[in-house]
Amino acid sequence: SSRFAVVEQGPPIEVFQLNKLFTDDTNKNKVNLGVGAYRDETGKPWVLPVVQKMEKLMAADETLLHEYLPVLGLEQFSNLSVSMLLGEDSSAISEGKTFGIQVLSGTGGLRIGAEFLNKHLKYTTFYYSNPTWENHHLVFVNSGFTQPRVYRYWNPKTRAIDFDGMIEDLKNAPENSVILLHACAHNPTGIDPTHEQWIKIADVMEERKLFPFFDSAYQGFASGDLDSDAWAVRYFVKRGFELVCAQSYAKNFGLYNERVGNLSVVVNDPKLIPAMKSQLTWVVRGMYSNPPAHGARVVANVLADKKLFDEWRDHIKMMSSRVMQMRDALRAELIKLGTPGNWDHIVKQIGLFSYTGLTSKQCEHLIQEHHIYLLKSGRINICGLNPSNVEYVARAMHDAITK
Ligand code: PMP
């Protein structure tokens, strides 16, 4: 007998289970459209050349030690991250109303930010978009939020944003609800509010006294431009909102497994920052004590050097334009095949993902019959497409839809 006999098998994590099925599949035509990671035009993961260059420099640097970082991480990394988010000319920064802390990638930023808001501001209600990244719910509930709610976001009929529904749900949210907003490149739908819609969202949130928690996991991937992709966050800051934002460098630096992230905070009164930092220190201390250094050093060294920064910006442009080309290619193939339905949404959507509108049965068919792996919501990672497999994928989608 064992005391552990009480432990029941938990459900699998869909996206990682899908990865395993893909890896184990021996079919030569297999395609992975599941996990949200960049793939180059030959289907391979890509280490950004600027990252490789920096890692070589760091490997040769004998002054780098493996001593603990401070609990809140590398300050230079956080300052650079805050400026990347808010813009170097941000008046919130020059007025001393901002700070950042290094966290364990985007997930860690959400987790620390949420626990801090729950413990110290006593917030208990949070709203996330329907649908959203599947982990938002769990992260907030584990952080102490007891009232999970959704706001409408996707209209399956129009394959576009359900903006009226979203606004109505926000209008009905109780004061001090935390509203989780995707800063850009909404996962999984690939649809962001327009500037006019963001302005309306800000109006309602101000009026209803709601708290914005931005999730910025794809800065640079929506438009290819870091500044355009930060528009919504910068607009909220200009409007005078206090807010937090979890930033991930997993995608835009290709540093998935290094867990490099920043939690940016904007507060109206700079005098409050020392107390806030001290309490964030205790949240981190009780969770993982301090963050790892390697990835944050890579990012900080690149962001701090004008030449390397420009090189990195070119990498982002390259990645995002490859995604856009593959959107065009997939749509063109489907049109060529005469696949029933309108496929404009594939090119209108932005970021890594397309919410195809395929039913879960059609997705199952793609996996079972065609060795094409995708989430049962119909979300596909566009980077899984390349010139050698896009026609195969389109034919398989055609088959799944018309069979
Ligand atoms: N938020 C969103 C919307 C995401 O898509 C992801 C990654 N899939 C994350 C946060 C967190 O990613 P990470 O912890 O790897 O930075």
From TrEMBL:
* Cellular-component GO terms for this entry: cytosol
Which keywords annotate this record? Aminotransferase, Cytoplasm, Pyridoxal phosphate, Transferase
Q: Which GO terms describe its biological process?
A: aspartate biosynthetic process
The cofactor required is:
pyridoxal 5'-phosphate
- This protein's source sits in the domain of life called Eukaryota
Show the InterPro entries listed in the entry.
Aminotransferase_I/II_large, Asp_trans, NHTrfase_class1_PyrdxlP-BS, PyrdxlP-dep_Trfase, PyrdxlP-dep_Trfase_major, PyrdxlP-dep_Trfase_small
Any one Pfam family match given in the protein's UniProt record, by short name: Aminotran_1_2
Query: Is Cytoplasm a UniProt keyword of this protein?
Result: yes
Specify the Aminotransferase class I/classII large domain's residue ranges.
29-396
The reaction(s) annotated as catalysed by this protein in its Swiss-Prot or TrEMBL entry are:
3-sulfino-L-alanine + 2-oxoglutarate = 3-sulfinopyruvate + L-glutamate; L-aspartate + 2-oxoglutarate = oxaloacetate + L-glutamate; (2S)-2-aminobutanoate + 2-oxoglutarate = 2-oxobutanoate + L-glutamate; L-cysteine + 2-oxoglutarate = 2-oxo-3-sulfanylpropanoate + L-glutamate
On assembly, the entry states:
Homodimer.
Please report the name of this protein according to its UniProt entry.
Answer: Aspartate aminotransferase
The upper taxonomy is:
Eukaryota, Metazoa, Ecdysozoa, Arthropoda, Hexapoda
